[in-house]
Structure formats: structure tokens, C-alpha cells
Amino acid sequence: MPDYPPNQESVAILVAEFERELAAAASPRDAQSLRDRFLGRKNSHVASWMQQIGAAAVEQKKGIGQYANELKKAVEERWAAYSEHAAASARPAGAVDVTLPGRVPLLGHRHPLTLVRERMEEIFTRMGFAIVEGPEVEDEWHCFDALNMPAEHPARDMQDTLYLAGPMPPVDGDTDAYVRTMLRTHTSAMQIRYMQTHQPPIRIVVPGRVYRRDDLDLTHTPMFSQMEGLVVGEGISLADLKGTLLAFGREMFGERSRLRTRPSFFPYTEPSAEVDISCWSCDGVGCSMCKKSGWIEILGCGMVHPAVFEAVGYDPEKYTGFAWGIGIERVAILRYQVEDIRLFYENDLRFLEQFPY
Amino acid sequence: MRLVISWLREFVDIKASAEEIAETVSLRGFEVAAIEPLGADDAVIDFEVTANRPDCLSVIGLAREVATAFDLPLTLPSAEGGARIRLAAVPVGKSDRITVSIDDGELCPRYAVAVAEVKVGPSPAWLAARLQAAGVRPISSIVDVTNYVNLELGQPMHAFDLTKLAGSEIHARRARAGETITTLDGVKRTLDAEMLVIADRDRAQAVAGVIGGADSEVSATTTMVAFESAYFKPASVRRTSKRLGLKTEASARFERGGDPNAQVVALQRAVALMEQINTGCAIGAIVDCKSSETTPRHLRLRRNRLTGLLGAIVPDVEVERILRGLGLAVSSAPDGWQVTAPTFRVDLLREVDLIEEVGRHYGFDKLPAAFPPVTRAAPPPDPRVGRDQLVRRALTAAGLSEAVTFGFIEAKAIDVFRGRQRSPDPQGGEVVGADTFENVLTIANPLSAKFDTLRPSLLPGLVDAVAHNRRHGRRDVRLFEIGARFTTSTERRSLGMAWTGATSAHWSGGARDVDFFDVKGLVEQVCTILGVRVRTEPIVAPFLVPGQCAAVIVADGPERGAVVGLTGQLSPAVADARGLPRQDRVMMAELDLDHLSKARAAGSDAIVPLARYPFVVRDLSIVVADTLPAEIIRDTIQASGRDLPAPLASVGFFARYHGKGVPEGAVSISVRLTFQAADRTLTDVEVQHSVETILAALVREHGAIQK
Questions:
Q1: Chain A CB contacts of B445 below 8 Å
Q2: Is B125 helix (H, G, I), strand (E, B) or coil?
Q3: CA of B439: how far to CAs of B60, B431, B433, B442, B460, in Å?
Q4: Are B698 and B668 in contact (CB under 8 A)?
Q5: pLDDT tens-digit readout, B535-563
């Protein structure tokens, strides 16, 4: 310990030295010994200055005492601040490392097709639609004939439809004539079942799996999911169809969504239309998602064909209605930017775990 | 249909660009696949024509749409001098060069022929280029003329080398069973009696509406041809084309339905073209044979129906403009219009079809957006929807992720699950159980062997999904699926679960691998959520490990005793066969959700009042035979505890111990008995007496020894 004479300058030097060394103290123990070197009863800077008072000349005594006190006060102040801070950061008994991970109950994930389906169900339920489901194994009458697709219609070709090797009995409410021989190619079959057993007004959505004789590739699967909608009543118009789908589109894809309705052809609707929605990625300006067109083809729809009403015994002069069918995979592909439709059926957890609980 | 713009302009004097035309027509119902520039001032628009509009598989058909959309006049082919699209003024009559007879009037309503003397060569450049732009390969002047007319007017044509037709005869007749023909593509084809052929005196020279025969093909040396322009029954052409596996420009038009009244005009146009390119001239009149007459259809269009269906008022002048533009004859009627639809519009069958035409050209985009009024409260949803959502939520909360697998599996997988042994059906009826894989439904026309069988259970699909994840390095996999399963008698909604790997993973330890009771717990949880009390019984299933396999059985209520599912460990043989490591322990379970819904006990919603007097707990440890099921011990305790001084409130198992102090073949079971009375505080004496009675029953029934 260098022997500084007590004066204003050495007070400053020592205080600075204390500050510096306190800041550098590696442990509470080092800090304590540093404090003792300055404030201790014996052999500290303050103690040695106090000792010098006795031997000093009378006129110097008061000055030395003053410097010793100044030094003491300055060091004590810094020590008090340090102690307070140290106390605050000490670890109490039984402390845990709160930064370690907690025991999170493992959460599974809903399938993306379920997420899309449930979202649609929620929207349409709020619009007053009832959710109904139907059988996946169907008879040709419900799937084709009643939907204005007579026996020679091209859509009935073996190329598109998967038939069973053996028949399956009719479902409840069917007569014996309806022997089920095929996998439904669309959820529209359930429109017929529902109309056969209910009277207008009707407002339903029918989610479900459908089957086509397609090879598995980037954009096709032999099974996929649809959601069918059907509204029947008196005075239902194409304008109602547009408004209903617009309300759906805005909730599903964003407030700014706009619809474009292009005439098309389906045997069971007349007029028929394809509906495009303004691309929600670029808001219709044109981007890679909408292939620069600003529009995304989203569903097929139309006014229920009078022949369909006749098939289920409704009076087409009295009732009109509209129907649509939307592909759930199609929406999921766009929404989650999935480039390979097969991912939905591989059930790879690296894929599934990216979707919410 | 590839529409060449310069060709279109011969019919409609339109200034708009190809892009404008494409955009406008696409909003009238013809999707645009592509727009391709063609030289400096021409282009091709590739339109997708829907199945109901065969008339638009032609330049004239699309021109009619364009003219109506842009409100421009349409130029029709005409025999008058100076006509832009010229018809030759060949009359209809008799010919001394050829005899034509329709032998099968059902399959061939109309058959027209023109005979021409020709000099076959290459077509002029403009015609060849036009065909090429439209997607048809130029062949020779005569064949090119037929293709040109087909593209322009939508009437398929065929040219026979007349000198090759035996007897100069044409017969539209059914093929004889086993009759053969070598077609233009050089393939020898065998025909059947359902097919219509065009034959000469001796044999078939063309498959009607599909393809011509090689024998009477027009060649460079041909000097005399017979042009065929006919109308064949669409369904017959479709069937023949499908049966022969042969789709042609002609068959595509015929099978969708052509115009039964366009035959003569098409021949007159062909002759005019032939003259124009100097490749031949007509000899004599056009022979026109009809087995039946098709007249234009008269339809009524009511104003209020139009307004009601579209939800908007379309001005009368606009309605008339649109319908006339499309070639319909329109006259006023008191409540709307009387409309005559030309025979080329095979899709206009009833009033609603006219409404579509008006709506289409008025513009769907001009219709307002309304909302159908709600006049009745929505009925409740299908009960399966909420049930499935609840189960889905419970299982995702338990850490299982949702899988979706295909509704079909491969027959090979069925064989693996079916195994060698068969087990007796435990309860009969439709169960998810050992016999599930015996009554499977197969697909008659599968595209691939991978999808040739409808799944009778969700488990094979889930096993494959687990295997997929294991192959990608995932050790811990928990999956479930809710979906249909199928047997020969029924389609039912099922829940499948698969779990392999660790139960938890935390730095503090405590991880262990999944076992039987983890999955059984999930089964019990789901059943509890669905309001069904279940119990389990050991069973044997060929795809599960013996001794770790149980049937899930309804414990009470109307469906008491019904088997609603099964749970157990996947057998290593099945795991191995489906690409999983043999040593992996994969726990599986399947529950019949529809059966569970039916089994739901109709309990009361009222709460049980909270007990006012304290309960007393007594633990009892006994040693019994290792093979004694816990459920039987519970039953004995409950039976003996029925009329005790201290009412038995509950029985719980809390320990099962093998080893030191327990003899070989025995097990120590610890049971926690809880006693409680609703009306008083129980005394020690009452409780002690009750415990002793229960113990005595266990000793008596099972030879239990108290520890």
C-alpha cells in the first residue's frame, strides 16, 4: 500500500482507486477485503491517516482529520451503493434457474384441412347454415341421375368414378333401389339426400371427403375434401348467391376481397358460374400466387337446375335456390402456400407441427 | 378451341385486340387457356369450351359469342355473289354417281354426301397456315378442306376415295360382330354391333363419327371423292370412341352433339373452298338422307322468372338484343317472350337455359350482391360435427396430432393385418375388432394397387403414417385420425390412434416409453368425454401383441356389453411388414365413434349434493394370483360392500407389486377403500367391520392373503 500524504489530491486518487477496484472485484469476498483496505480499523488508508493526526503538528491536525473524514465518507458512500446492489442480485435459498424450459404439456396439432374446414363451418354457421354430413359410399342415383347427369353423361365415365367391386346396402331412409356401388365424386350427392328428407327453406353446408379416379401427383389425389353449400327457398336469386359468397370470401380471405363471377357449366346448376376472388396476397395487382392475373379461382356454383328440384319432388316454379362446391385442399394450398398436395396425406409431423393447436 | 383472330374477323368486323376479346369472352363463360401472337397482326386465343357448348368448337360459334358481347353484326356464310364466307350453290337432289342409304336410323339421323372431281395436292400456304394455327396438321388439299370446314362451322367431314367404295354405295349401318377395319392411323380394329360404321357394298370403310378407314383414304392419285357430312347419335359416338380408346377432332364434336341441320351448308362450304383453292369441283347434286327431322325448339321466357332468378331487372331491349345476337328468334309474349332456339344450340332445352344466356351476356358482374333472407332458424348441425370436434380437441390437448389418410389402402396391407389366425368374434355384430379385416370392400376399377381396397379400419393408414415419420428420423410419434371406415355392410365414423416413443421429454428426467396404459388411458378419456362408461377385456387380434390387446366394451346403459373398439400393441410382424422397426413399441387403439354416440347413457344433468359428513379412507394390501384381473377384484369388493354398516363410496387401485416377499405366480395389490355416509359421521367400529367383511369376501372368492 503506497503511503499517500493526506491532502485534497490524494483523497481524489484514493477514491478513484477504490471505485476502480470495486468495479473489478471478482467476488463479494474480494470486495470486502478491498473495503477493509480503505476503511478497516487497522492498516487501512483511513486508519493510517487517523494515526498520523497524533504525530502531526497542531496546525495540520485539523486538515488531516478533515481529509481522513472526507475519504471515509466517500468510500462508505460507494460501499453502501455497492452493497445494496449486491444484496439485490443475490440468489435466495431454494432459488431455481427460471430460464430453464418448463414442463409444457405436449400439444398436438389439428390437420390443416381441418383448420380450413372448421373456419368455413364457423363462418357459414353464423350465416344461419346448418352443417350436415353424408355417406361417402353412394348410389348412382344420388350422385348422378338426380343431379341432372343421366346415364350417358361423360362425367359418369369409369375414368372419373371409383366403383365398388360389390354393392353396399342403402343407408337409412333410402328405398331398396338405391344400392350403393360407388364412392361419391362430389358432396353434391348430399344435397339430394337432404332435399329428399326436408322441405324448404333450406340453408346447409356439407363438408366431406370425395373420391375421383385420379393419379397421385403434385396437384391431384384420388381423395380430397369439399364443402358443398345449398340454399333453397322462394325468390332466391343469383344476386343472393353473389352476396352470400362475397360475405364468405371477405371473412375467409380478408375484408378487401372482391369476387368475380364467370359463367360456366355444371349439369346440376343453371346458370352456372366459376367464382374468382381477388388475390389476397397482392390485393388484385398481380403476383406469383395469382399467376399475375390478380384473381384466384376458388369455387364453382350456380342456381339449382330445375331438373334437380324435379328429381327430389320440389316444384321448380315455386322454389329456386343456389349451390356451390369449394375444394378445401384448394383453399389450404393457397392459404398455407403448400406446393405439393400430397403433403396433406403424408402426415409428416414436420409438416403437421407447423399448424396451430 | 384455338380461335385464329383473322379467321374470326371474317365473321365479325371487330377492331378489339386479342387480349380484349379474350377478356370479354372469358367473362361470358369461355375460359382462356392461352393467347399466342401469330405474326405481326394476328393471334390465336385458346378457349376452353364447356361440355354443353359443342357449337363453340368452331369459328362461327365463337364469332356469335364475340358479336353478341361486342354488339356487332355477324356475317354468315352465303351463296350470294360477293359473300365474304362463300357457299357453293350446289343443290340438294339425286346423284347418279353414288347411292346412300341409312340402314340404322337410330344411330344415324342424317347423312349427306357431295361427290367431287378432284386433283389432290398441297393446300395453298394461307390455308395450311390457318389450319396449323388452329392446331390441325395440313395433310393434302382435300383433307384440309374437310378439316377447315370442321373448324369453321363445327361440322365434322370425311372424304372417301369414291373409286375405292365398292358398288359406289354408302350404307350407315351397325358393324357386324367381330367385323374389322384398318383405320387411318394404320391400326386394325375389331368392332361390335353397338358401333355404327359407314360401309360400302362389301365392308366397313369408316367408324362413323370417329375415324375413316385406310382402304378408302384420299391419296395423291385420287380423282373422285365423296364428302361425308352427317349427324350421328352423340351417345353412340361417345361409346364407340371410348370402346376403341380413340378420341378425334370429329368424335369430340359428335359426342357432345352437333347441329342436325348443318350438313348441307357444310358441303356447300367445302365445295366453295375447293373451288377457291382450285382443287376440285362438285359433280351433281348433294345427296341428303334423313331418318328423322330435328326442328328448332320453341321456349317461353317469362319476364318475372328472368328477374327473379337473376335478382336484377334486365331491360327488355337488352334481353332481345342478346338472344337475337346468339341466333335465337325472339317475339313478344304477354308475360315476356316467345323464343325459338336454333338446332345448333343443343344446350337450350328450357326457360332457365335462356335465363342463363341473358345473364351471361348481360354480365354476372352487373348483378347486385344481396343476401337470402333468413325465414327460419337453422336446424342443429349433424351431431357428428360437434362430437368429432370435441374428440379432436381432447386428443390434440393430449399431444396427438391429427392425421388424414386416404379412404383406401392396398390389399397387401389387409393381408398383413388379417394375419394367419382368426379369432372368434367376441360379441357378434359390427365391431372394430379382430374380424374387421375379413369383410372388406374392394374397388372395381382402382387406378393403382395402392388404393384398391376401402379401409375397414383406420389403423393400417396410421401405421403407414407412423412408418413415414420413423423413416424421417422421428422417434416419438403420436397421431390420431377421425374418418370413415368401410365394410361390406356399413360405413361408420371411426377414431384411430397410434403412439410410439417417449411419453415426455424434459431436462429434469422422468421420461419413459409409451405403454399399454397410456393408450388405454386415452381410450377411457375419449369415452368419458362422450359420456360412455367402458371396460376392457383381453382379446386376441392377429395384428396386436398377444397379452397386450383388449376389447373396449360398453359398461352400462342401453348398449351394455357392446364392443366399441380395441386397443393394444402392434405386433412386430405387422410393424415389420409395413416398414417399421420390429423393436419399436407402437400402441394403437380404434374406437367406433358412431357406436359410442349410440351408447351414450341418458344420465341426469342434476348435480349430486356435496357430502355433509367426513369420509374415511382405509388401505388394504392383499396377495392374490397373478392372473386375477383387477376388474374381478373390484367387482368382488363392490358386491361385498353393498350392504355394509359403512357405505363404500369408492374403490381405487394404487399399487401392484411383484417380487421380494410375494410368492412366484402371485401379486400384491393395494386397494384404497373410501367409506362415507350421507346422514352421519362413521364410527371406527363401523368402518373396521366393513373392511373385514370385504377382506373376508376377497379371501373366500380369490384366496387372498392380507399383507
A1: 158, 162-163, 213
A2: helix
A3: 57, 11, 12, 10, 15
A4: no
A5: 999 988 889 998 999 999 999 888 999 99
